[in-house]
Structure formats: C-alpha cells, structure tokens
Fold each of these.
Amino acid sequence: MSQTVDRALSILPLLAEGPADLGQVADRLGVHKSTALRLLRTLHEHGLVYRQSDQRYRLGARLFALAQEAVENLDIREIAHPHLVRLNEQCGHTVHLAVYEENEVLYIDKVESRYPVRMYSRIGKPVAITVAAVAKLCLADLPEAERRARVEKLDYPMYTSRSTPNAAAFLKELAKVREQGWATDLGGHEESINCVAAPVRGADGRVAAAMSVSAPNVVVTADELLTLLPLLRRTADAITSEYSGRSPTTA
C-alpha cells in the first residue's frame, strides 16, 4: 500500500511540469502502463488529475482547491508564537508580529520584555504606519504602483525629530528596505524606543507578516539592538519555512 501511495504521489510533481501522456508517466515511475493507468484513474476520480481530449493528463482543479483551502486555514499567529517566545527568551526584549490588512498594519501577537519597562503596543492595534519597522516591510513588498499610491495618501505626523517627514522620504526608505530585506525604527515613533524587523514570507514569496524586536535606549543602544538582526532573521526564516513550506533565502 505504501508503495502504491508513493507512486501515486510521484505523479503530481511530474504533472506540475506540464501535461504528460500515459507512457511518460509510466516511464517516470518505472512501472508498466497498466499500473500507471490504475494510479491515474484513482487520482482522476478524486479530481487530483484531469485527462485532456488529447489523452494527456494534467493536474486537476480539486488539487488547486485543496491547496487554496489549506493556505486560507493556516494561522500564521499560531505557527509563529512559539518562535516569538523562543526569541524573547534568547534576547529578553519585546517581540511583535504584525500583518498588513485593509490598508493598516496591525499587531497580531506580542511577547513582553523581561524588564519592567513596558511598551504601549497592544494586539489588534494599528502601528504608526509611516515609522514602524514592521509597517515598512509590509509596504515595501507591495507592487510599485500600489506602494506609491498608498504612500502618497498617508499623513506624516512628526512623532519625533526622526519621524518620516513626507511621501518622498518614505518611498526612498521603502526602496532601501525592499533591497536589504529588513527594516528599522530608530526613535521614529518614540525617541527612547528602537526597533528592528524582518519579514515572514508566504508560499508565493510575498511578505505575509513582519516580526520585530524592540527595546528602550535605557536597556540597549540602537547599535546593540542591531546586533540581534542575524538572530531575528533566522527566527523569521524558521517561521517562513514552517508557514509556507519554502526555504528562505536570507543573505
């Protein structure tokens, strides 16, 4: 039975390369055509493969529907949370997870720091979109036309002297973030708080969420916080791998 299942599953990546006839399937599996035909018929009955009018087989619509349903039911917060806790245990600082939704970037998880100083951020609350490191990652990943249109509609409050002053400056910052693959907020929202963020990507390679490490200047300097970037990126990559099934390509 296990060999039969293995052979049937081996057909799917073959058909992902493009339609194939019975002989090609049999050759790839190293089996007689009658065996390949039985496997293909079973997969066809379940909607996982489809036989075209030219007698070649391709992947069936049911397979794509199952894949889409699986993606929609993935809970990125549930997957990420153990990783966020582990990162917090390693560095001691506040760790956030955020997503871009309906033109806002929202915190969906938070692990508090070990020290008495607490950040005001709350799960479900929008971030300061023009300065927050997680927001920069989410917006930088948007297609250029959408990114520009969104940025030009934003207001640019000067929370501190380091806040992003206008759309032109923000677009320049987002281009830098897109190129380097990570982002910072060094006193842009609160003078005393620094933050560094890394992306979590979905199966399509797009940014599905962004995670960050934040700490006040009284605990660590901005330069000291930036030394955690490799650890942060490894954590984000681990979440990406578990969430999407793809291997990240962190430099």
Amino acid sequence: MGRVAELAGVSVRTLHHYDEIGLVRPSARTAGGYRAYSAGDVERLREVLAYRRLGFGLREVAELVGDSSTDAVAHLRRLRGLLLERRDRADAMVAAIDRELEARARGLKVTPEEQLGMLGARLYDVIGGAYTATRRTEPRIAAQILDALEDARTVLNVGAGTGSYEPADREVTAVEPSEVMRRQRPAGSAPCVAAVAESLPFEDHSFDVAMAVSTVHHWGDPIAGLCEMRRVARRVVVLTFDTDEPEWQDRFWLTRDYLPEFATVLAEFPSLAGMADAIGARAEPVPIPWDCTDGLFEAYWRRPGAYLEEHVRRAMSVWTRVGPDAEQRAVRSLRDDLDSGRWAERNSGLAHLDTADLGLRLLIA
C-alpha cells in the first residue's frame, strides 16, 4: 500500500479511506498477510484519482467507476473528453485575460461585471456564450440534412450544442459534454445527455440515425466518435469539413489572406476520406448561402465586415484556437483592406454568387 501511495502521489491514509468506504479495496495479499493491489485494483485507483482531480465528489466517483457497462477504454475516453473541456476553459480564460490586458493598456474601463464574468459562471461564454445570438439553424443547410435523415424516427444528435438543426418532427436525444452549451438549450428542446462522442452511453443500434453538425473538429478522437455513432445507430449523418484538397485553406479568402494559422488548427484533423471510410459514408458538398443565418466560420464569405464584430467572432471556436495575437492581426489587416478597397478588388468575383463551396461536406452512411 505504501508503494502504491508513493506512485499515485497520495497518502496511505487516503488509500485506507478508499478501502474503508469500498471505493478501492486491495484484493490481494502478500506472503506476510499485508494488503496488496492487483493490476485491476490499480486500474480502478487510476480512474478514481483521475475523476477526483477533475473535481468529482466521492459519491459521484463511486457511481462512475461502479458502472459495470463502462470499461477502462470508455473511462479513458470520458476522462479525455473532460480534460479537453477543461483545456478549452483554460484557453477561454487566457483569451479573456488577454482582452482585459489589452483594454487596460488602451485606458479603457473594465466593468465589475466583465471582471467577474471572466472568473465566474460565464467563463465559457468566451467561446460558447454567443452561440444563441449568432449560431442559428440555416434553413437551406437544414433541408439538406433533413433529406439525409430520410424516414428516421429516432435521432441521436451528438455534440448537440444549443440544439440547432435538431428536427422537430422526430424523436431526438441529444448528447453534449459542455454544461455551458446544455444550459443554453431552449425550453422544450430534446432531452440532453452529458457525454462525449467517443463513449456514447447507449446500446448498439439504439437509434435509426445518429447525426452530428459542425462538431467533429471539437472531439478528442474524431474517428472513435464516428465509430461510436455507427455502433449506436443504423445510419449516420455528419456535417464536417474537407481538408483533403491540396492547399484547401485557399478556398476561403479569410484563411488564405488573413488567417493562415487556421491550417494549424486542423493539422491533426482526420482526412475526409479517412472519416468516410471509418463509417462507410459518401460525401456531399454543402454550399453556404451568401446570407447564411448560421454564424459558422465561413458564413460571412460575402459579408466580410461581420468578421470585424467581436460578438460574431466569439461564436466561432477558431479564433480562440489561433490565439489573440493572430486574431487581432487578422482583424486589423481585414479592416485596412476593407477601408482601402483592396478586399473588394481582390474578391470581386464573389459579388454575384448566391452560394459558395468552402469545404463543408455532409457524410452519409
């Protein structure tokens, strides 16, 4: 027990307490009769300590590790998802601090509400709180998704966020790991389960179709998440992004001319072909209307001034991922080019287009 305590970075007293309450009981004995930990005991202890360090109470931890339907791999995937969410929260806090430092350097007043919002319950607003203001269902994209759902009656929406694109005429179950996103779901929306895509808490073939809309790039392991969707549903529909084409980032003037860091954000994102192969899907292009009502990253391709608006950018996770320096540089350069007419000259061919293919793809399996 002493050696295990040393390796785990906890006290022997903590291990005794876990033993007393039945959380982790050593199942082996040494020749001298002392309690010893088997490999399975160590694995369980690892899970207990990981959940504890993420802030879970002992009762919650007991329920999590006591779930017989969840194996070690599922626990690791769940822990990975929780850690990624914590990382995003930390990134959001850094971004909030950077903005306050910049505001103070410019002599601007920072209100008490803004100061408390950075540390309080609205911390995740930095990357998620603007979703209900600018991220709404785009009817033309929704129609394409609805066609792909065909006659499905039961639908699982994975990475559901605030509920955009959930069909109103089907029996929908939502999955969303972020508490902030779940809180923003409107009253009367589909029931929402707190879980990650890589470890869906449902039996095989529980749903007619599993859908995921503009969320795969947030997952810790996209391929694992897609395979989980394939496991729990007879069909799969996923709106994602194509990075297979050479110099794909040049499709969109914003990433081509102002934000080359976007390519780094998706550097480890799986290929469209790889995702399609994982679930046996075909890919359909999803054109973006010039007046798209869903404020996704590419939505304002014919309305460049929107990218100068803080509240518009805050609903796009890309800006948090590239960091405040790249964001402010891109905004300054775009503002200068709009003022000088350089942007209009360089992108004159867009003026009369109703839609643009900027890499959105619908995977249908």
Amino acid sequence: MAETVTKNMALAKAINESLRRALDSDPKVLIMGEDVGKLGGVFRVTDGLQKDFGESRVIDTPLAESGIVGTAIGLALRGYRPVVEIQFDGFVFPAYDQIVTQLAKMHARSLGKVKLPVVVRIPYGGGIGAVEHHSESPEALFAHVAGLKIVSPSNASDAYWMMQQAIQSDDPVIFFEPKRRYWDKGEVNTEAIPGPLHKARVVREGTDLTLAAYGPMVKLCREVADAAAEEGRSLEVLDLRSVSPLDFDAIQASVEKTRRLVVVHEAPVFFGSGAEIAARITERCFYHLEAPVLRVGGYHAPYPPARLEEEYLPGLDRVLDAVDRALAY
C-alpha cells in the first residue's frame, strides 16, 4: 500500500517541513537568522534543519537584523535563494532600510536585469502573552512599498505550500507567520497542486455578509460565522492569504453576492490594510453595497502589556458588533 501524502500537522511543523523540502530540492536555498540553527528557532520552526543540512545551509547569525537582510541581498545577487528569519515582528525595524531601500528596489533599479529571490520570515501578531516588541502587526508598512510581495497563511496547508511558492518566487516575499496559530493543526497534502500564491479563498460560504481576513484572524472569523449562524445569519468567510497584491476580484465577487463587508485584522485600523480594501471595494461595488464597509482591528496605540492584550485584539464580540451594525442598515 502506498504511503499517504496527507499528514496532520501543526502550522509551525508545516513550515518546517516546507523548508526541509526546499533545502533538499535546491542547494541554492539557505536559511539564516538568530538562533535558527542549534536552537531551531525560538518557536522551533527550524528545528533539526541545521543538524540535517549543516551549518553552511542553516546559518546562525549575529543579532543584527540589518546585517541579516543585507547579507541575504548579497547572496541573492550571487544566485542563492536565502530564507531569513526575523525572530519577532518588532525586531524587523533595524532591517527596514535594507528591505525597502534595497530589497524592494533592485529589480526596478536594474531595469529588470537583477532579481532578488529573498524570503523574509516574520512571526507576527499577538495572543501569546509576550513582552514589548514581540506582538506587532507591521504588514501595512511593507504593503505600501512597491516591489515586495506580502503574504500570510492562516492554516497548516497554506503555510506549507505558500512557503514553497515564496521560495520559488524571483521577487522578494515578506512571509508573515501568525505566531498564535503555530500550534493549530490541519491536514497537509504534500503532493497537492497548490493554487496561485496571491489568490484569496472562500473558506465558508454565506449569503448575508462577507468577513474578509488573513493570517491569525481567519480562525476568529470562522468562529464569528458559527456564532452568527445560531441566530440565523449566513456569513461568508474569505481568507485573503495575500496582502500585496490583494485579490480584489475575489472580494468583489463575494461582496456582490452578500452586499456587505467587514474586514478584520490585528493591525491598527488607522491606515491599515482594511482601509485600502474598504476604499477599493466601495469604488468597485458602490451600487451593490447595502451598508458601508466596516473595519475591525487593533487600536491606534502601542501594543499593550500582555495582561491587556485581549482588550486590544479583535475578539468575537467586537467582530459580531460590526456584523450587527452592517446588517442594521
């Protein structure tokens, strides 16, 4: 009997398996970051990879994010495909200059002659009771920069396949990993044919309102849809999967059916990705909408201490309140 290719694994393990497959299939793939080797990463996402592939393929770096990304850019110029880990979301800012000034611009600067196939892995978001600089959601800062692809999986299967596609991309990809979902398990078919990297996916059909989210908020939106169903309301849940580019066609198709949209993300609502979605869908679907596009997210304030983060993060009640307001029109 042939061995099944479908495995049940946690999201973190799915990324580990995907990185292992990439290392095994392409000698130009390298992994770099703080504690990614001997320790296997603070979340153990790279556990065992240095042991199996050696210190020249899985490289423990100094605590210097700008240097990590800058080195990856140089390696990419020499034909490698570096996958770098930023240990926590709030640590990415020392590398922000390298990412937006060099990594994002080199393809255009060289008139298309130079490609930089670099993946920057960033565990992001809250919900784990961490200290300051460990629970940020900076995706909108990067989405504003042309030349970068921004993606975030919400489940183990997407984590596995989206990482494969990110590594194979000739463009730089910022890969936001929802750290609070690292331990959520799901089925992963390691021989499946994945869909397009930047294509959104309907994960629950509905007729009354669309909930659009990505990364850690998709699970919450499914829970909101379950709660709303008990009151006879049918909510459609759309997993955006990609922040840049955004699959506006999929959002439009869902909104034309449900006529209402609530966008949910952990990042602050002010100037967040939900604002771009609201503006674009209002332009595209003005005559279909029966309520304004509403947004639910974090507050325009520094991320709070761990004991207050449940008040800061979008939860079931806050999203249901937005659903109620949208359906009241």
